[in-house]
Amino acid sequence: MLSVMSGVFLTAFLGSSLNIAIPEIEREFSVSASVIGWVATAYLLTNAAFLLVSGWLGDRFGRMPVYLAGLTITTVTTGLAIIAPTIEILIAIRAIQGIGSSLVFANSVAIISDAFPPDRRGRALGLTVAATYLGLSLGPVAGGALIHALNWRTVFIVPLISGVVSLTASWLILRQTRPATGNMPGRIDYAGMFLSILVPLLFVSGVSIPGSSETAGIALIFAGTAALAVFIRVEQRRPGWRLLDISLFRESRLFSFSCLAALLNYSATFASGFLLSVWLQYTRGLAPHEAGLILVLQPAIQALLSPVFGHISDRMDKRILASAGMAITACAIFWFAWAATGQDLPAIMAGLILSGTGFALFSSPNSNAIMSAVLPRHYGTASAILALARTAGQLFSMGLVTAGFTLGFGTVRLAKLEPAALASSISLLFLIMGFLTLPGILFSLLRNRGPRNSA
Q1: pLDDT tens track for 210-238
Q2: I want to staple 170 with a disulfide (CB 3.0 to 4.6 A). Which of 3, 70, 220, 280 is the partner?
């Protein structure tokens, strides 16, 4: 637990604190907005591209060694980022860091599922989710304080320390862990590996393409869709040694609908933090650190409640708990749509508490349901698919907001807009996101209950 919690805390803190540092990085290196965006995009690109391969490597060679390799890459690149002399080197470091993080993300849930019996798995997964959202909570606050006191490079110090702690814990327990699997086939699915990397690369590049190249972005997304169809076809024709067992989706409604619920949940909710940050700073006139202190309410509530709801999911129907969580999250999104137009700050804070509760009630039970629906030899693949669903949902959510702002305001800067007009647009986007949660609730309810305590 110490190893995995430290690892996920590292990656979560690193992402949320670095977002605060973007203006300072842009100022130091004197680069354009399109270039500075690649500090985040390069990481997301490689992280998404290597998730399925990372899960397969964990199933084949042992989850702990692969996780440890990812943790080593992430920690080393975190240290190197502190001394990056140019923006190009920093972007390259972030790209390598994305590969390391994919090895961590794809195997962390699998390690927990392999280490804890089914009747204790939910609580353990809840602690993992709590560590993730603790990192997200502390990132903006601690990162902002470090930047204010020193400079942007200091935001890497906390995740560097966390990485060293996690590496130490991992090395100490490595000899005591049994092999995660010993019956994987000897042949390697090179075509599947290539296509599994190509598909996310095309999709992420299509979403992240600069605004002046909409046609190229659409073409890349269509190419990604075609590559995905080819990947599915290839994997169906290679029983016994394929990268991804497509039958997991076909034979288990619990697994497929739980993954789909995760995808829809993140698609509908991930951009809410960005929208609320814009609302707080541009319509209420709050300073960045003031907005950060308010926004920390949601991940703090989730970090507090996730272990509790994870423990409850060991004893109750995961389907009901996760569906209730999505329903509460939907209420919070619609609440934000109403509160944004009235510029009511206490109402926004109440909504953050509500959404944090909904996220906590959904995340741990849903992850528990996904891991309970597969055999131990597929833990790495299932963990990777869960991470991929989360990343894809995050990309879609931010793409939806970006498209909304582009259609509504064009190239006009947000600071130049009337606060009322901006608030109305944010409210409309929240309304659209709220309706996206409804099919997620439906799919969450329609999945079968599955075995109560099975692996």
Answers
A1: 444 567 777 888 888 898 888 888 877 76
A2: 3
How many domains, in total, are found in the chain?
Answer: 2
| Cα 43 from Cα 21, distance rounded (Å) | 15
Answer yes or no: is pLDDT of 352 > 70: yes
Residues 185 and 257 in one domain: no
**Domain shared by 38 and 136, yes or no:** yes
Query: pLDDT band at 332, cuts 50/70/90?
Result: very high
User: Residue 344 has what DSSP assignment?
Assistant: -
Residues whose CB falls within 8 Å of the CB of residue 229, separated by 6 or more in sequence, listed in order: none
The whole domain housing 274 covers: 249-455
Q: Are residues 147 and 257 in the same domain?
A: no
Specify the 3-state DSSP secondary structure of 207.
helix
- Helix H or strand E segment including 24: helix 2-29
* pLDDT for the residue 93: 93
Distances in Å between the Cα of 185 and the Cα atoms of 14, 77, 177, 384, 449 are 36, 33, 22, 19, 31
Distances in whole angstroms, Cα of residue 329 to Cα of each of 11, 320, 430: 24, 14, 12
- Of 206, 226, 243, the position where a domain reaches its end is 243
pTM: 0.75
Are 248 and 232 in contact by the 8 Å Cβ rule? The answer is no
Measure the CA–CA gap between 79 and 262, rounded to whole angstroms: 33
* Same domain as 158, residue 24: yes
Asked if residues 171 and 225 have their Cβ atoms less than 8 Å apart, the reply is no
